[in-house]
Amino acid sequence: MAEIRYTKNARINNLLVERFPLILTSTKSVHWMSLEHFFDLRREGAAFSSIGTYGSHLVDFISQMEVDGIEISEIDDPWLEAYRNEILARGVGKRKQNTNNYASQVLRTVIVFLYWLESNGYIKGVVGDNKKYPVRISVRTRGIKHWLIKNRASGEKVVATPRADWIRAIKPYGPKRSDLSERFELMIDWGASLGLRAMEICSLTIQQLPDEESAERALLLEENLYINIIVSKGGKHWRVPLSPLLVKKTWQYINGVRKIVVKRHLLRAQKNNRNYVDPSYIFISDGLGGGVNPRSLSNSVRGAFRAAVEAKELTEEQRVWLHGLRHNFVTTILRKLDEEGIPRAEAIARQVTRHSSEDAMGPYLQDRYNKKFDGNE
User: Fold this and answer.
1) In the chain, what's the furthest Cα-to-Cα distance?
2) CA-CA distances (angstroms) from residue 369 to 29, 130, 163, 225, 353?
3) How far is CA 203 from CA 75, 208, 288, in A?
């Protein structure tokens, strides 16, 4: 995890400075981009105390990126929203919960930093003022505006967990090409059926998948299969149950569409006197032949939702986003356990949903007791 150090007797522009922040990465290297940012803030007149606050915000942000295994160039709005929810979940049941205001302050610091990186050429095509940018902002005379850094009123409506029928509704609005559409729908199924994050879906390999014979046998015996998730938040390995029907559907994709994509890349590489090696990911990029980028997957889900809204299939309130598939999974698990009267449902759900603690499930629970969630009312 990244950590922050503070100077005791540094000299900056001939001034002796105490507690000027210096962020070190998990490898104990100086995080130079943040340091340059702090220097720039000081040149613009920011107080040393304010820079220290920004440092505490950014070390948290950098630590979360390290936990999730992503680079700054891969940040997008869905990830920022999940990060905000993570901040709000901390401390529940042990100490006073982080407030919406505090989460907004951290996100403001992060988004200002991302905009500074974009403006100074450290990143490109990540932060901007139109829909082509993964992090969409507006720059005004009074500062940068972003929907996640608005302080929410206590009575403001919480975004609803996506229902199963909402998730089904976006599938026809994914990529138009049949091969890309099949891949898109299957990736959604993996996210909704196992509660996988974007990074975890994109990191799945063929070697992890149970074989077709096992899937057939499990179907006959009405049993689940299991898969080892080896790329996950926090770097832990998890053994999770999965449907044999999903396994069969995935093998159909591998032996059909995916095989065609691999052949296309092999022919393209031969034509250009290059070597192409099948990366073994279940889901491979049509353009580059490597694994699908998690940000691209998130963007595809967001784009499909917007298209479904424009087609009047969904409303703005019936929002579906990539991490929302995980929200649906967690809520569905808890509701089933509640219906069956299983004791200590939260503890069981924590194991199945791969949360570090029961408290960490807090942001996912707003629809646990909502009778309308299953379409019953």
Assistant:
1) 77
2) 47, 38, 14, 29, 18
3) 17, 10, 16
| Three-state secondary structure call for residue 58 | helix
Q: Which two tokens stand for residue 256?
A: 């059909």
User: Is 124 in the same domain as 192?
Assistant: no
Lowest mean per-residue pLDDT among 8-22, 57-71, 206-220: 8-22
Point out the domain boundary residue: 122, 149, 176. Answer: 149
Domain count, the chain: 2
Per-residue b/e over 108-138, b at no fewer than 16 CB within 10 Å?
bbbbbbbbbbbeeebbeebbbeeeeebbbbe
What DSSP character marks residue 205? B
CB 295 within 8 A of CB 82: no
**Distance separating alpha carbons of residues 327 and 355, to the nearest angstrom:** 12
Instruction: Copy the structure tokens of residue 234.
Output: 């926090």
Residue 375 lies in a domain: no
Span 311-338, pLDDT tens digits: 999 999 999 999 899 999 988 888 888 8
Q: How far is CA 237 from CA 51, 227, 232, 233, in A?
A: 37, 10, 7, 9
Q: Are residues 127 and 114 in contact, defined by beta-carbon separation less than 8 angstroms?
A: yes
pLDDT at position 329, please? Answer: 92
Q: Is 42 helix (H, G, I), strand (E, B) or coil?
A: helix
End-to-end CA distance of the chain: 46
Give the closest residue to 334 by CA, choosing from 365, 371, 303.
365
* Model confidence pLDDT, tens digit, residues 32-87: 999 999 988 887 777 777 788 899 999 999 999 998 889 999 999 999 999 998 88
The pTM of this model reads 0.60
Both tokens of 319, joined, read 């929002």
Residue 157 lies in a domain: no
- Concatenate the DSSP letters of all residues of 273-320 into one string: T-------BSSB-TTTSSBPPHHHHHHHHHHHHHHHHHTTSS-TTS--
